[in-house]
Design brief:
Order of helices and strands: HEHHEHHEHEEEEEHEHEEHEEEEHEHHEH
Largest sheet: 7 strands, mixed
CATH topology of one domain: Rossmann fold
Radius of gyration: 21 Å
Distance between the termini: 49 Å
Number of helices: 13
Shape: globular
Number of strands: 17
Helix content: 25-40%
Length: 376
């Protein structure tokens, strides 16, 4: 992988590559990229956990909400999961529909999209009994969907970004160079790309000495494609990120770009090349603006804990469950608790629910169906 990066630098007319080029290579190179390798990345044997790692409850809560939307004729039984990973979310979702909502399941079409051949293999093995599931490597491959729901979990945080740093009273772009010994290093160069200048301006990043900010160039491209594939319906994005005000907190002055290797956070991204996950916190305000630019309504935004409560996760608590820690009832209650307890996995995540081409009455009905939690 290091040779691939050095070759890219040497072949560049400018003598460097930008961070989005670097991330694209180490994560998505078709042979050596982290996400495309045939090895476990999620769970205990991988490098990071996702919410779907916490049992089946998470997928079931979203499946139940989807079924409520379908039964109230707000959307058709069409579900698209972008970034399907190992297929555990899809398995929980489809199994819930099959067991609890057989009529919807019978009419359901489920698209699962993942660039990794290895992940698609895992999905096909896990979901072999669900004949209504179709597999794709890229959003480009799917046809236009008239009406349905698009879902992603930790999609945008894994996309390439540019990086800027405020130094000597102005913003510079952080790029990757190699020295005479072929060591990879960062360097600061003058910003020329208008896309960076525009983002800093509209987001009102004034700049403090040493401050770093990630420019979400990959998010815009993927979101434009994602929203273009659905004519009408719901887009539910689950990810971790900050609002514009939160980015100004002093402890975030170095930005959020980092690596995860065997469940340890790594600040030096020029090591473990192609061997670790690279991630950033997303700019939620920017994602909302992208929606508005495409006549998409930002209907609901909340922390994951509150969202799961709103979407009815308490329905998964089993009263008077067995105290045996190996029983299925005990495990389910533990999963619910881990998803909503302070200090748990939900602390890091937020949910954004957007709608496309829906009426005011549709929005009112959606809000009624979402806000189910009577305990908050």
């Amino acid at each position: 992988m290091k040779n691939i990066i050095i070759n890219a630098i040497n072949n560049s007319k400018k003598g460097f590559i930008t961070y989005d080029q670097f991330i694209s290579l180490v994560l998505y190179d078709h042979e050596m990229g982290y996400y495309l390798k045939a090895n476990e990345k999620i769970g205990r044997k991988g490098d990071f956990y996702t919410t779907s790692s916490v049992g089946s409850v998470y997928g079931e809560v979203i499946a139940a909400s989807f079924c409520r939307f379908v039964k109230n004729k707000l959307i058709e039984p069409f579900f698209i999961e972008v970034g399907g990973g190992n297929g555990r979310f899809a398995s929980a979702f489809l199994s819930y529909c099959e067991k609890k909502e057989p009529e919807i399941y019978h009419n359901l079409t489920y698209y699962i999209i993942d660039a990794s051949t290895y992940h698609r293999k895992l999905q096909m093995e896990l979901l072999a009994n669900h004949l209504n599931c179709k597999y794709f490597s890229n959003l480009i491959e799917i046809q236009q969907i008239k009406n349905g729901m698009v879902f992603s979990n930790e999609l945008f945080d894994a996309l390439p970004v540019r990086v800027v740093e405020f130094n000597q009273n102005e913003w510079h772009e952080v790029v990757i160079i190699s020295d005479e010994l072929n060591n990879l290093k960062e360097n600061l160069v003058k910003i020329h790309d208008q896309i960076i200048i525009d983002f800093l301006s509209r987001s009102n990043f004034i700049g403090k000495n040493g401050q770093r900010v990630e420019i979400p160039v990959g998010m815009e491209k993927v979101y434009e494609l994602l929203q273009s594939k659905i004519s009408k319906g719901i887009i539910l994005t689950v990810d971790y990120g900050f609002t514009r005000e939160e980015w100004d907190a002093p402890h975030r002055i170095k930005g959020s770009l980092r690596g995860y290797y065997k469940h340890e956070m790594k600040s030096n991204l020029l090591e473990n090349l192609g061997q670790m996950d690279i991630t950033t916190h997303i700019h939620w305000d920017e994602l909302k603006k992208l929606g508005l630019q495409n006549n998409i309504e930002n209907l609901y935004f909340s922390s994951q804990r509150d969202a799961l409560l709103d979407f009815g996760i308490f329905n998964w608590l089993i009263p008077h469950a067995q105290s045996n820690p190996f029983s299925s009832e005990y495990k389910q209650n533990r999963a619910v608790q881990s998803l909503i307890m302070p200090g748990g996995i939900s602390d890091s995540f937020q949910w954004l629910l957007q709608t496309k081409d829906m009426s005011t009455s549709d929005h009112s009905k959606l809000n009624e169906l979402i806000l189910l939690n009577e305990y908050k």
